[in-house]
């Protein structure tokens, strides 16, 4: 397995965004005591939004197929 960091994001996981205008980035902190931090350059924010939207659509489509019995 390749080196990878996984952060399991759940509905009750604290998430805090922090705009870093001086660095032209957004920081998203996941968790409290030992937070994992995702640092996103300004130019990458729209792409991250697109990727999350694509993933959401795929989950919705899968759920709809399962409800439809396909």
Structure description:
The protein is an alpha+beta fold and 70 residues long. It contains one helix and three strands; from the N terminus they run E-E-E-H. It has a three-stranded antiparallel β-sheet with strand order 1-2-3, with no helix packed on it. Strand 1 (15-20) and strand 2 (25-30) form a beta hairpin. The longest helix is centred in the C-terminal third of the chain and has 24 residues, at 45-68. The chain is extended and about 50 Å long. The protein starts with 14 loop residues before the first strand and ends with a helix.
Spatially, the strands of the biggest sheet line up as 1-2-3
Strand content: 25-35%
Give the beta-strand count. 3
Please write the string of helix (H) and strand (E) elements.
EEEH
Number of helices: 1
